[in-house]
Amino acid sequence: MFRSVPFVLVGWVSLSLAGCDSSSLLPPPPPELAAESDQLLRATAKTMELIFREGETPERSILSQLARLEAAKSRMLFRMTQPKAGDPPARQAELIRKAVAEGVTALVVEPDDAPQVGEALAEARSRGVAVVLLDRTVPGQGKPYTVVAYEPFSRTAQSLIDAVLEDVKAANLPAKGPAVILVNSLFDSHATDRVAAMKEALQKAGVTVLEPLTFEVTDENARKTLSDALASHPEISMVLANDDQGLSAVGNLQAANQVKGKLVQGGYIAFEVNLPLGSLPGCAAVVDRNLKGFVQQFIRAAADLSRGKALPERIEVPLTFHRTRQTGAAREQPGEPNPIANTLKGLGLQTGEESTKPEEATKKDQPR
């Protein structure tokens, strides 16, 4: 079974950060030499600062760690700041001005709505600081800022719901639902958008959608939340999960035979390494929301801009849809690539399920 997915993600990042190169076996330099080298590095190296909006989430910690790795690849120092809980919206503007005063080369900002933020960003750019924004732009004079954002979640949500409905039909379950969306209480910046996209796609297909089920963080809580809902609404035929943890809980609940009847599920994952969640019982499809790719794009954009490279106004980060074969008819031809089965094989796991080739299953839905 696949449990405690957030710990898998954090562990993966931690291992990456630990570093295993041969230089770690060498003795440390003398303290005075290390201090001198550090001062020289900071005096000559370019520095990038990531400034979030107010609100602390575990995913931001992962984002920050991934960003530090990517910034190092671009030969830039990195640091992250954000307003504290309860700070006024204008606090982000103060952090921007502080970073500029300290000599940062590039800023990556998830901008708040306060007008002071737009003013601070304009000041930063007028002083030669490269500015890249996340998800949304801010009004300002002159050339628009470069914005790095995910492609619209509506594209992959539609593919996800189509796959779920196909398996619902093949399993002779009620095509009109009801369906329910399982939501982790540890919201990330894009959680609300994913929920809205899935709900809209379900309603567009004529499926009755119950109120979202919010669970508190853990696999155990997710299972209990869903079990209680199924006891009250045994007619539920579809469960959509907003994140890896929810997807894992639904599949594990079915694998443990703790669900009466059949359920078809699907949902979003943060990393490709969690594709095996698509092999859990009843899973029709998963969408990799490409968290690592999101980080790579905004770090590279800021580094390129700081070096004078021209960038477009908007850089979209693609999502990847993966169709798994469960109750529905296979659409894959023998011998063709199978992303989920290949991932499982690479992890030394065995499964009877297969996935269809994403580019054939949803060619019209894939980002261009």
Characterise this structure.
This protein is an alpha/beta fold and 368 residues long. The protein has two domains: 45-144, Response regulator (Rossmann fold, 3-Layer(aba) Sandwich), CATH 3.40.50.2300; 153-289 and 321-365, Rossmann fold (3-Layer(aba) Sandwich), CATH 3.40.50.2300. The protein is 42% helix and 17% strand. The protein has helices at 5-18, 31-44, 58-73, 91-101, 115-126, 153-170, 191-204, 219-232, 244-255, 291-306, 339-346, 358-361, and strands at 46-51, 76-81, 106-109, 130-134, 146-150, 179-184, 213-215, 238-241, 264-269, 283-288, 314-317, 320-325, 354-356. It has a seven-stranded mixed sheet with strand order 7-6-8-9-10-12-13, with helices on both faces. Strands 2-1-3-4-5-11 form a six-stranded parallel sheet, sandwiched between helices. Helix 7 links the parallel strand 6 and strand 7. Helix 1 (5-18) packs parallel to helix 3 (58-73), helix 6 (153-170) crosses helix 7 and helix 8 (219-232) packs across helix 9. The longest helix has 18 residues, at 153-170. The radius of gyration is 23 Å and the shape is elongated. Mean pLDDT is 79; it is low at 1-27 and 327-368.
